[in-house]
Specification:
Number of strands: 11
Distance between the termini: 18 Å
Number of helices: 0
Radius of gyration: 15 Å
Shape: globular
Largest sheet: 7 strands, antiparallel
Structural class: mainly beta
Length: 154
């Protein structure tokens, strides 16, 4: 996974080794949809420092997407309004996403990058920069293992 860009606009490239064994959902209109994680899906989580609030973005190889805001660990989920929907381009080995992060609080954000991979044979695997002990839980604070700098910083 690679992240480029500033705070208002971020370019994510998710690449998967062995992509020929992945089940990719059929392409659809690039609209908002729920439950994208039930098959191959790539995710971005952002948590605000000194706060329990965070946002979740889901990007499907189908080009459908979702964005949610949470008050705390899996609590108070609401659709996160987006003036500009993400642009999702399906690649042979993954996905490239251009996502507008405008409207989120200023300052450095803690970041989690993750993926649910639907493999041939019906096996789901869960990938993240870091995992908490036990079952996979991308919403757990331990998964927010990277930093997205504040605008104007490097």
């Amino acid at each position: 996974m690679e992240v480029l860009g500033g705070r208002d606009d971020v370019l994510l490239t998710y690449s998967v080794a062995g992509a020929d064994k992945i089940v990719f959902p059929e392409r659809q209109l690039p609209t908002r949809a729920d439950d994208l994680w039930r098959t191959t899906c790539f995710e971005l989580f952002l948590m605000f420092d000194d706060d329990e609030r965070y946002v979740e973005f889901n990007f499907s190889p189908s080009t459908r997407w979702a964005a949610y805001a949470f008050d705390g660990h899996r609590e108070g989920r609401q659709d996160l309004a987006r003036d500009v929907p993400p642009h999702i381009e399906r690649l042979e080995d993954g996905l490239e996403v251009d996502c507008d992060l405008g409207g989120l609080p200023h300052g450095e954000l803690r970041m989690g990058l993750s993926a649910v991979i639907d493999e041939e044979g019906g096996r789901l695997s869960y990938w993240a920069l870091a995992h908490p002990p036990g079952a996979p839980d991308f919403h757990h604070s331990a998964c927010f293992a990277a930093r997205l700098p504040a605008a104007g910083t490097s």
